[in-house]
């Protein structure tokens, strides 16, 4: 018989500490402490601890004896008409525990235990620890459990499972094993409409011949779909299958939220360093079971009359069937089924993969009305489920932070696997303007006629001549950009993106707003536009940098100074063209909100770096459009960086173990070296070349001996913009 007695464990001690007084248990054998080495205060403290332990064990003794005398009682709910339990074999408590553990397999070296605060009512789970709340050992909440040197993790055994089923505690499971495998896959549904979502997922599993079990969660406001494997499978394969079934469900039956991909258990392919992975509450805990929750249900969401007979009939899935299910669910496409897929071997990561022509299953509408405004709007009522799902996924991409963290063994908690930019309006679905080409391709591939209503702002006429001269490569860029209302110019530094943009303003002839993200760019753009468009500087408005004077004709504004609401938000809706300099910055949330409020017909992005360090460039494409022209470096730009090493004969006396700053100081004080640099600078300057010298020490700059301009950092904006002769403070 399983008993509820808890073994008294030896308290974990820090290095050099003595064991506690009295008798501790080590593998069932008592260890007698050395009483003579303890002070009176230590003995009194140990006595208090033992008295508290005796009181605790005395309190749980009656419940323990009762649990030993009686088998586990399961709440009997109204039997489902679809269930037949006649002749079901009665299982003993031990057999029930073994059946339970055979299906719900995960880590056994640690398990999460539910806690609930009596004061705040908050609840959660934490790894079960033998030293939790032990006086003199546990220092919660001052020290986090993960940082505690006294943490002794408890193992998941038959007794723990029994106490969970009996209602004495609520136990969870860490399904991801240390070797990256798992024995089950679960999907959590807890959003509005969770019943329909869970039922749709179950239907997809049945279509794919995947055995699945539905459980009402312990809150009663959600459901878990469980898939059990006959042996350990790679968590990556199990999760790919789960994602494929979700994608199949969205295509055929019901539009699940993209966050459904984040509600898989396990939620990562490998364990993060020092982590246990995500946890899931084990079902059939007595207390919620008495309310009809935390129990398994049929397709009508009626609890099975005999939960144990049902569990005994559950079929497991063979690992060899996983790849076949993935293929049947996706047709060979990526399981996530989104527009931007991050592939490791993608040669040009700034480009989305070409859209594959794909006819959707089901009856499609003959025609649709597409409204162009600040976004693309399609009425939801006439959209078939497969079409609605595909449209939503045109505005979705894999979150690189999730995969980067997973690859490095970091936690992926609170990192969504998919980022979606589609918006669900009451009657319409809204997609970013950059999705227009893919939307039109999708409709054309499915023989759907499209009636386009253009509600964008065409702006006010702006007849300005272009006063500059374009190179051939710049003219080619203008020609390509003029073919499209939206898009990005990808050109390297020194290409002349500003002069190209000025030519676009003159060609399109509508009032224009230029958005920048730095004060220096604000002033540069005003100077360049004044020059290339032959305008008076007073004709170019400024918003930001302490100024707020818009002309409504040609204005330059800082992104940080243009809020999408209020008076300036209304201003965003009046321009016929918006140009975004260094548009790779628009992926930031605040900048994205500004671009989504723009109603201009023409949106042009300029960038030299279409690939962001955080790999969020799909947001840039959605807001500004795809790359319409990718320019190469101008022929006049140097193609090769030449390095000319110079050898000095003077010795520098620096200790072998000297810090690097000491080495820099010695080099700065080396007069022959400094004179050699200054001579080289003078020679190049004498040949008519612009010279940029980056000395980190003032003495080096002071030796130049010529009039020069120095801009020093670590000062205010006004100080940095001031020009000082070299050598001046």
TrEMBL record:
UniProtKB keywords: ATP-binding, Helicase, Hydrolase, Nucleotide-binding
Top-level taxon of origin: Bacteria
Keyword Hydrolase carried by entry: yes
Domain Helicase ATP-binding residue range list: 478-628
Molecular function per GO: ATP binding; DNA binding; helicase activity; hydrolase activity
InterPro entries reported in the protein's UniProt record: ATP-dep_DNA_Helicase, Helicase/UvrB_N, Helicase_ATP-bd, P-loop_NTPase, TOTE_primase
Pfam family, one: AEP-TOTE
SUPFAM superfamilies, per database record: P-loop containing nucleoside triphosphate hydrolases
Protein name, entry field: Helicase ATP-binding domain-containing protein
Organism of provenance: Paraburkholderia silvatlantica
